[in-house]
UniProtKB/TrEMBL annotation:
Active site: D26, N74
Cofactor: Mg(2+)
Function: Catalyzes the condensation of isopentenyl diphosphate (IPP) with allylic pyrophosphates generating different type of terpenoids.
Enzyme class: transferase
An example molecular function term from Gene Ontology annotations: transferase activity
Residues at which substrate binds: 27-31, 39, 43, 71-73, 75, 77, 194, 200-202
Species name: Methylocapsa polymorpha
Alphabetized UniProt keyword annotations: Magnesium, Metal-binding, Transferase
Pfam families cross-referenced by the UniProt entry: Prenyltransf (PF01255)
Keyword Lyase: no
NCBIfam families reported for this sequence: PRK14830.1 (NF011405), PRK14834.1 (NF011408), uppS (TIGR00055)
Keyword ATP-binding among record annotations: no
Protein name, UniProt field: Isoprenyl transferase
PROSITE patterns named in the record: UPP_SYNTHASE
Amino acid sequence: MISGETTLDVRRRLPGVPAHVGIIMDGNGRWAAMRGLPRIEGHRRGLEALRGTVRAAIDFGLDYLTVYSFSMENWNRPIEEVADLMGLLKRFIRNDLGELHKSGVKVKVIGGRTDLKPDIRALLDEAEDLTRSNTRLTLIVAFNYGSRQEIAAAARALAEEVAAGRLKPSEINETLLSQRLDTAGVPDPDLIIRTSGEKRLSNFLMWQAAYSEFVFLPMHWPDFDRHAFETALAEFSARERRFGRVTAQGQNGKTKKI
Ligand code: IPE
Ligand code: IPE
Ligand code: MG
């Protein structure tokens, strides 16, 4: 945001700001390695980048920001690194919850809770409870999250309802399945940004990303800043989303993209 600019000014400058952006915050380890630093230093700097990103998301007027901060597959990392990442999540909530709340941010956490330690579970519950009524921006933290596991759990929930006689198999449709995902009630992400140059989803929001636009940035996550965010939003607003339809010109009988 240029200094003195209001959210409305940004919206004018970047028409078509998406309601929901998902970010795969990747490249902390490589950022550190390039500087001869331990991986944890990359994760610490990544947390700084996240703070700035949340502030920018508020200024840009986004409704939802989902950040992928720990995947179910990340348990396969060395135990020291897993412990560091758990420690950073705790630090983020302890240090930032007050400010997030003051800024009107509603925190929601998606992913498995039962395999997290009780102190982390308590912090996540506290963050959600404190900020439940906020409306400025919903910050969805995907922690111990896996899209396949989320879809499997939704299928299990539907199967249990069928077994209990509350639902007929023929009634199962996309809406009912969506409503049993962790993201129930949240609109699908319009844009998914991944840093670090990797071009994959790594088990992030696979169901919800069916019609998302993707922007892959070569920079590592600790280097992601307001300017990079704006670049991604500008690229998004230049895209034409068709959702399976023909283009606007095609409908007018002029050009038709195939
Ligand atoms: C992203 O950075 C943070 C997490 C996955 C938790 P990485 O730690 O994956 O960094 P690279 O990909 O090894 O550089
Ligand atoms: C995805 O990054 C998970 C997060 C950013 C939290 P990874 O670094 O774990 O993904 P892969 O292993 O390169 O696919
Ligand atoms: Mg990575």
